[in-house]
Write a structure and sequence with these properties.
heterodimer, A: mainly beta, five-stranded antiparallel β-sheet, 11 strands, B: mainly beta, seven-stranded mixed β-sheet, four-stranded antiparallel β-sheet, 51% strand, globular
């Protein structure tokens, strides 16, 4: 079993749609959680951190459920520019960071 | 600040050749790392360093060497290239004092081994 698992997609949605990505992690001692965004043939960049209480940044909402070892990312009112791969990232302590394989999103006009 | 820089952007090697991928950062970050990214696999850690003079192996270190003589530079050496090393290589840096341990990535090196 992979340490961090994501649905690879792709998710194909129309502009304005709401889309949700899920991620599960296997190490119950994991300490911090992130979503990174990676555009085609580019490097990953931090989208947002994920806090236990849930957090929101504009159209993006991240949730963490430690009991179920589950992280989610909700994108509301999708834009064409949201088309990218979204990486679920888990830090298990110190510098040990595990990346999920990513979920691809295509937003269509 | 240039952030994290990598050279070259593209490279084609023949099996058995050696080469060095360069990585530099100007953010005075203590932690630097090398990942490879293959389709469907996510980023896998090759080697990392927590400071000048200190390096350690990650998940997939075989066939690669690193050194960290300065805080800024963290080169990755392929000793004898194999087709299985065809991949996209990313260098990253992180400061423990940074908010939520964000990693900053270089633009990547696309390597093909024939």
């Amino acid at each position: 079993r992979k340490e961090v698992e994501q649905d690879p997609g792709p998710f194909n949605v129309p502009e304005g749609a709401t889309v949700a990505f899920n991620c599960t992690y296997s190490n119950s001692a994991s300490q911090s959680f992130f979503w990174y965004r990676q555009d085609c043939r580019k490097e990953p960049k931090l989208l947002m951190s994920v806090y236990s209480s849930g957090n929101e940044d504009g159209r993006f909402t991240a949730q963490l459920n430690r009991a179920s070892q589950y992280i989610s990312l909700l994108i509301r009112d999708s834009k064409l520019s949201d088309s990218a791969t979204y990486l679920c990232v888990v830090n298990t302590g110190g510098f040990k960071t595990i990346f999920g394989a990513g979920t691809r999103l295509f937003v269509k006009a | 600040n240039a952030g994290v820089t990598q050279t070259p952007k593209f490279q084609v090697l023949k099996t058995g050749q050696s080469m060095t991928l360069q990585c530099a950062q100007d953010m005075n970050h203590e932690y630097m790392s090398w990942y490879r990214q293959d389709p469907g696999m996510g980023l896998r850690l090759i080697h990392y360093s927590v400071g000048a003079g200190i390096t350690d192996q990650g998940e997939v270190p075989n066939g690669y060497n690193v050194s960290r003589s300065t805080t800024e530079d963290f080169p990755l050496r392929l000793l004898s290239a194999a087709p299985s090393q065809t991949s996209v290589y990313f260098c990253a840096s992180m400061s423990p004092a940074g908010a939520n341990n964000e990693q900053f990535f270089g633009p990547g090196t696309r390597l093909t081994v024939l």
